[in-house]
TrEMBL record:
Bilayer-crossing regions: 12-34, 40-59, 80-103, 115-137, 144-163
Principal location listed in the UniProt entry: membrane
Taxonomic source organism: Cyclophora tenuis (Marine diatom)
Keywords for the protein's UniProt record, in alphabetical order: Membrane, Protein transport, Transmembrane, Transmembrane helix, Transport
GO cellular component: cytoplasm; endomembrane system; membrane
Higher taxonomy: Eukaryota, Sar, Stramenopiles, Ochrophyta, Bacillariophyta
Chain coiled-coil ranges: none
Keyword Protein biosynthesis: no
PANTHER family tied to this protein: VESICLE TRANSPORT PROTEIN SFT2C, VESICLE TRANSPORT PROTEIN-RELATED
Annotated protein name in UniProt: Vesicle transport protein
Function: May be involved in fusion of retrograde transport vesicles derived from an endocytic compartment with the Golgi complex.
Assigned protein family: Belongs to the SFT2 family.
Subcellular compartments: Membrane
Membrane topology category: Multi-pass membrane protein
Amino acid sequence: MGMNYQQRFQMFCTLLFLSALFFALGFFVGLPTIALRPQKFAICFTFGSLTFMASFGILKGPWAHLRGMLSADRLPFTTIYIASMLLTLYFTFQFGGASGYLLVMASSALQLLALLWYLISFLPGGSAGLSIVLRAMCRILQPVFVLCAKLHATVMGYCFTYLTSSSSNSS
């Protein structure tokens, strides 16, 4: 791409930061409202995944990264990961209601599993390295997850109360 290593590393850091921003939006904005609008989470998470992949593509070089993703041992991952991102975006923009909710949730879950598979295969130390990183992240993010769970329970309680009071008022 005509960039030296320092420029590629700067672009890698920029895209990795943008990826973290999308993931943060997905988890802090999309996750609390996932019961009502999973599309918010799905879009943020998918764009976080795309920028995450692009960051490594810039660091290694786009063609080298693509060759690595299309190698025989990583081809199943690549197929599942790209398909899950495309399905997530397709379901997000094409389907609504209960069926759309389930489709978006299923494709987002598949995308998350594929992303974890990607991390395991590319991180130094493989699954042991990922385990260390995930434990550290869980310790750091545990208060946030607890707060999101409480907020989710509160919102669902209000929704349930509203729905039950609406149905009893209309009877």
